[in-house]
Amino acid sequence: MKYKSDLGILFIFCISIISACTTPPGIETPYSTPVSIPTPSDVSVGNQPTTVPAKTPIQLTSVSSFPSATPQPTLTIPEAEDVILNMLKNNGGCKLPCVWGFSPGKTSWDEAENFIKGFGSKNTSEDFQLESSKSSGRRALHVHMFKGNLITGLTIGIHKEGSNISNLQMGFSSMEKGTGNEYRYLYDSPHYKDLFEYYLLPSILSNYGIPSQTIIAAFPTMPEHPNSRYPFDLVLFYEDQGFFVEYDATRKTMEPFYVGCPTDAWISIVTWKQGRYTGLGELVENYGGGTINKYNFTLFRSIDQATEMSIDEFYTRFSDPLNTSCIETPMELWQLD
Fold this sequence. Notes:
By secondary structure, the chain is α+β, with helices and mostly antiparallel strands. The chain has 8 helices and 14 strands.
């Protein structure tokens, strides 16, 4: 698998702050700078939410023995793969904003560093690749899993404040290798959905209830980038718990609507010390997700303002694991100045 050595350049899911974002050649990335979409006064959709009881969350116990403040021996590839796949099954046995046993504001930096160091700086086998990176106050673990021509990626980034960790970011991605150096982004891979089932939209809604805010952005086509892939982004913001989950789907056009299918989306997660930020706007000034950041935050609109669904209807529909419907929003809401 010669192409593994190129993944540092070719296989990137842009998670702000974890690492610089790099994109495969030929794939354009509009909306990296501020843009403006007017607020329409003649379009009215959506209803105000009523109170809907959240589904009973699954009960998870806290991780008591892992990670550890005591340095651990470097894991072999089979051991590392076993640890990661077991962590993914139920988020390491803890609930967000805890990720894999790390709790912002509680877990010590030494524990976080020892966890990342335990995977080694670079470790590769035929179907699994691990690589860690570090900079001042930041550690990250990058994982690539290979299955035939499918490449599934995971990045987890940990940030330091004082002697503890302050923020965590995690992102998942999927690609398919074609001929030569051609790669295709995949948003509907069954293998991806099996690996990251805990973080899929129905699981998050069922386990954590109705978010404080549910917002979307259907990025309109920019004339200078007519052939680009444009995101249809959904963000669930759980302010009281201290995390948000982002679903980056591909925006489709079915006039007079833009359509996005959150069941076919890349996922990114940001967690932080509870009470650290006041509102999502302040958070994205410091930490972005896979797509949402301080430059494009003003594009986002509440789900009940941008669609015909109320927040309650959205929750009921998309917390159902059998649901395969998509989200429609009027194109006229998203026109550029």
